[in-house]
Amino acid sequence: MAIRAISLIRPAVALGALRNTTKASLSQALALTNLTRPQRASQTRRLTQVSAEANDDVKMLTALPAMNTKVRARLSPALSSAPPSPPPFSTAPSSRSTPSPSRLDRNMAKHRFVLPSAPAHAPSQLRPLREPSSASSDPFDPPRLPAQDVPKLPEKMVSVSSAADVSQTDLLVIACYESQLDAVKALDAQYGGALTDMIESNEFKGKAGSSLCFRAGGDAKYVAVVGLGAEDKALAPATAYGGPNAFATLGSAVASLAKANKCKTAGVSLVAGELSAEQVQGVTLGVHLGAYEATRFKSKPNLSKLESVTLQASGDTAAAIAAATAHATGTFMTRYLVEAPPNVCTPTHLAETAQAIAAASPDCMSVKILEKEDCEKLKMGSFLGVAACSEEPLKFIHITYKPKGPVKKKVAVIGKGLTFDSGGYNLKVAGSMIEMMKFDMGGSGATLGAAKIVSMTQPEGVEAHFIVASCENMIDGRGMRPGDVLTAANGKSIEVNNTDAEGRLTLADALIYAERVSRRRAGAAGARRRPHFRPATRALHGL
């Protein structure tokens, strides 16, 4: 093992020591004849081990020059700007004459490799935090995608409209309840019995979301039958059973069938009657969500060709289609944020998304972004403690929606905004899904998506506040440690027993901020009543 330590510093000396070791081993081998059988076996095993270690040392010493060349090539930017290496030998004057370098000294100088030392920084002279979108000259910095070039919403969505005739399309979808299969078979005269054969051969029962499709070759290239399930359940309110209702499922099936058959246009009709405005809204939402494709980070995306869907409906359906499109747009924004990798969806990216929401509806939406200095003035010690380790600048986001008429109610939506959660010093290890911790900002994605929906629908009588305390939970010498005590914005102290419990710390200061906003606005209006957000803040004391 001594040879291994020497070989990293003085290769020439190591080679000489290796030769001496080999000679000694040969001498010991010659003396084996004078040993007993057990002693000879023990010495043989020892010699075998020494020989294997010597072979390993020879291989390492042979590869050392090439290793130095690779390391120097990788460190060339740093070496070019580093100060000259100190001389290998002392140059101090001596009373005695300095002897000429020996062979050993020349070999040491030849193989000497000095890494440039990092300059010492005072605590107040640490290098400034790097902006996430700026290009870095450090070759060892992790790669970062330009977040400003990543779209925050789809470039285009499927166009949905209503009309009396929907047959002149690439795909005609006929929707029916479980009790209307005979009515579907009655339409088979124009399809030569193919519709009946498909229903019977596939045992189609009209269950919600089930479908059949065949090539017709008439006005519509393809004809499909989609089930709505039981009629009483399908006609129930959308929130009666939770999840998407039968008509939203119908819209999703239309989008899937259009993609599978490469159709650009589709028409939807009921086997008997026309779609109501509420049903049109459900189908439209289902079409948009069903046509959604996560393609931004794929090199070869498989995109749907669907461009437009026409619904057979009577009356004015423009408001219903617009409402469904607004809800789909907000959902897309949430999906775009949540599916983005953490080197794209940073706190700055969330702040830019909030600014884009406000800029699209300046008549009713406004945004305020608090930086680190602003949070320090508000004494948000709980939030700042979590964000202390990250090089990504924190962003405290506050979007305000004000209706055009009088305000009858105030609502605050607060989302967790941890764009990446390493766990801090209570590090998430293997098996703790650390690679999935970009999803820790799902709450903020939902909050911003809701803000987008509100900006497009503009409900009356409600003032809404959307608040996100966004940062990363990373590891650094500046960060919080298990056992630290933080002080929230309201003066309440919090003992941190686990640094992986960061969500409640950021939400604590966000809740306090929401309470203060409510008090300030209530005081400005001269109202003598308890703040609207008070019950939500009470829950803070149990965190």
- Helical content stands at 40-55%
CATH superfamily placement of the largest domain: Zn peptidases
What is CATH's topology name of the largest domain? Aminopeptidase
Tell me the overall shape: flat
Give the neighbour order of strands across the main sheet.
1-6-5-2-4-3
SSE order, one letter for each helix or strand: HHHHHEEHHEEHHEHEHHEHHEEHEEEHH
Based on the coordinates given, report the CATH architecture of the largest domain.
3-Layer(aba) Sandwich
Give the overall pLDDT as a whole number: 78
Main sheet overview: 6 strands, mixed
Total number of β-strand segments? 12
Q: What structural category do the secondary elements indicate?
A: alpha/beta
Q: State the end-to-end distance.
A: 54 Å
Domain module count = 3
Number of helices: 17
Q: For the CA atoms, what is the radius of gyration? A: 36 Å
Quick rundown:
The chain has 543 residues and is of the alpha/beta class. The protein has helices spanning 2-7, 11-30, 37-74, 76-81, 103-111, 181-185, 194-201, 231-234, 246-260, 277-290, 318-339, 347-360, 372-377, 381-387, 442-457, 502-524, 534-538, and strands at residues 159-163, 171-176, 211-215, 222-227, 265-270, 308-312, 365-370, 395-401, 409-421, 462-473, 485-487, 493-495.
Please give the structural blueprint.
Blueprint: H1 2-7, H2 11-30, H3 37-74, H4 76-81, H5 103-111, E1 159-163, E2 171-176, H6 181-185, H7 194-201, E3 211-215, E4 222-227, H8 231-234, H9 246-260, E5 265-270, H10 277-290, E6 308-312, H11 318-339, H12 347-360, E7 365-370, H13 372-377, H14 381-387, E8 395-401, E9 409-421, H15 442-457, E10 462-473, E11 485-487, E12 493-495, H16 502-524, H17 534-538
Parallel strand pairs: 1-6, 2-4, 2-5, 5-6, 9-10
Antiparallel strand pairs: 3-4, 7-8, 8-10, 11-12
